[in-house]
Fold this protein.
Amino acid sequence: MADENRKKPVTDEIATAQKDIDIFSGWLNRLENPDPVLLTESNGRGLKLYDEVARDAHAGSVLQTRYLAVAGREWEIVPADESSRAQEIADKVHEAVEGLNFTRSVAELLQAVLYGFYVVEVMWHEAGGLWVPAALVGKHPRRFSFTMDRELRLLTPANMLDGEALPDRKFVVFSWGSSDNPYGSGMGQKLWWPVWFKKNGIKFWLVFLEKFGMPTALGKYPPGTAPDQQQALLDALDAVHADTGIKIPNSMEIELLEAARTGSVSYESMCDYMDRQISKAVLGQTLTTEVKGEGSLAAGKVHNEVRGDIIKADADLLCETLNSTLIRWIVDYNFPGVTDYPALWIRTEAEQDLKALAERDKILLVDMGMAGRVPESYVSDTYGIPLADAGQPTIKAKSEPEKADADAKNAGKAPAFSAGSRFTPDQQAIEDGVDSILPVASAQRDRITADILAAVEQAQSWEDLTMLLAEMLDDEPAAEELAQTLSRAMVAAHMWGRYAKR
């Protein structure tokens, strides 16, 4: 009875494309791309319009930077679980993907950032008893359309309206910027106008340079001059710019007019402004492409973090698409019945400096004695070094018996300059002094360590710990006492050395 009364969610899509008042469905089975720039500016070219954006030097550069920032990253196939079967499937999928033109395909699929969506065709072949992709071939999105049910169609000369139906598991579609619209919402509609304004601004800039770089010739003729003489004057004006000398009647006159301008606004500043808008739209910032002024290094680091967030988002979105298509298809064709699939993961985080991390861990775990509060799994999780199972042989730098034998041999040997002691009398006096100081210095050090541990336990964050340690060391009597103890020891050793030389 309880199951009958339990509420159930609505599983059907309610806000379908057929009910969207802003999407024009001009044909019975075709969903039109609602991109406002394409609707008003493409003049029938469709997504080919954004090819002009990609051809712009600056827009093409920052777009390529965004594509290659993901394409150049390392990747791996993560097993569905820790079982040997899952690992075997992941290894086979890894081999299949590794044999592909994967880096190039990632860069091509990421062109969805510009166009809204991008398509690659999977070229399957049989190898080693498995069906695996031989290559991924990029296809320009202008060649495709979608039905009202978001099914991909191929536009062909025989069917340019609705497009041809396509087989399953053949085309990977990466849609960017919209989960509702299969055409996506690409950067093209943001970049088109800055590129268009810049292109037309440069056109006027060239005219401007011609005007201000070369004076305009002015010809004057007296009233009543015959038309043929007027034409001769005009020919002479044309010759001013090309010939070294001209001839005209003395009744005519030619002057050179120098154009004048005022103000600080220029076509160059307008083009720079448009480039900055393009950089912000694609990379989320400008300082990784334009470094200017004081403090730009620090600001550039902050801006690079913004770019890092964008790279990670692009990689994660692409992995979602490939995991739900290509990776799943490889498993379905070769391992029927498997429902837990491995996953592609593109690593975007920077490699950690393990040397610096090891030095930090030595201070915390060994010098400060916090090892007893850290689980063993920390070493394997942090450094990727597996822990030995029970009874499994482990790596040893030197066995204990070997170490004991080496110590015994060294203890039985005396330096050549000594009759029975390990040190000369003068050196032995210094060693005795050190032995007398060590207990005092060790006690002072232990007090400092205890205060540091207390600060670590009290701190709520790394920044909090930094402030607590700074305050503690500014007013730490044990630190001052330890410094004085070591200073006196060094002075005593120095004075004894000077005395022993006499």
